[in-house]
Amino acid sequence: MASSSSRITRTTARSMSLRTRPSILNSSVTIYEPEDIEALSTSVSPEPIPESSRRTKRIKREYDYEPPASSTPRKRQKSDASIPRKVVKATPPKKAKPIPQALAEPHPAPENWREVYDTIKEMRSRITAPVDTMGCDQAQRNESDPKNRRFSTLVALMLSSQTKDEVTDAAVIKLRAAVGGSLSIDAVIKTDESVIAEAINKVGFWRRKSGYIKKAAEKLRDDFDSDVPKTVDELCSLSGVGPKMAFLTLQVAWNLNHGIGVDVHVHRITNRLGWHKKPTKNPEETRLNLQSWLPTELHRDINHLLVGFGQVICVPVGPRCDTCELSKKGLCPSAQKVVKTTKRKPIVPSAPDSPAKVKIELEEDAKYPKPPIDQESMAQLEIMPKEEEEDLPIPKSEIL
Length: 400
Ligand code: SF4
Known about the structure:
The protein is mostly helical. Helices cover 45% and strands 2% of the residues. The chain is built from 19 helices and two strands. Residues 159-312 form the HhH-GPD domain.
């Protein structure tokens, strides 16, 4: 206020007459200005006005004030139809790469592989593993329609990744009941995804898998005449289906032997046996190596053989080298000395003429040194925190 008064006083002192007008912003404010503003600019000596004077600045702003236009130039520019808009093209879905079937240079057959294979086969004949009674081939047992049998097999395999056979088997039974008693493509399409999720919520990645099963059923209806396709590439085009599931589906559902189904057991055991020149980093590397030298007639059997062996004897942590014939025969480079622990239950062998096989109970926490294989990749494949995994997309390496 003091600044404004002093300015007016200075103006009147030079005999300049002032005129008044109301502010265009506030009618209760009166603006004082010289009648001859040009004369003022020449006659009044430029006296510095303190920068801190807000009042002075505010009056000046009122002179300069221009009412805003109805829209800013920027907005006008945007709404100008003459300016061409940028067209965002939809990117076409990526074409799936075909699953490789052979190595450029075959892997050499390991020495003594036949003796090792036959020894494992002999051990397997004396034990019953979960895969023998609850494997993916069991999922079709309650279906009579051939299409439903094939679809049940595929669903069981989709549920089986990161899940024990016992849990997978129970989930298939529950899912079949939830969709109306028969695990058909139509029934899954008609069933709400939340109902599917509820039925399979004990398996790993159950949220993701419920979506995958639903999407797979729709794709099978739309692209494959409501049936399971007969090629690996077509099977791998389904959400959540990888090479291991595809090869096993072909073997079980169609009786087609197009390759080896390599899961974590086959990957781990063949590395422990030293069957790869360099330890393989993932199941796909393992599959291509094995397929290049293992006789084709064994491609189907090796999965079942090694899965059961890996479930009971050559387990991921604390392999039972004390009971393994390969250790006794000096055929395994990863054989370990037994670490005595009171927590470890003894294995009771079956009577030689007993028709019943022995189911060996395992201790998960026996402390054995780690075998000399690619521990990092095995850890990724086998040790997944259950709760964390639910909301994450299934890593490609897990869709085997
Ligand atoms: S000796 Fe031990 S590591 Fe080797 S195959 Fe047998 S259980 Fe597995």
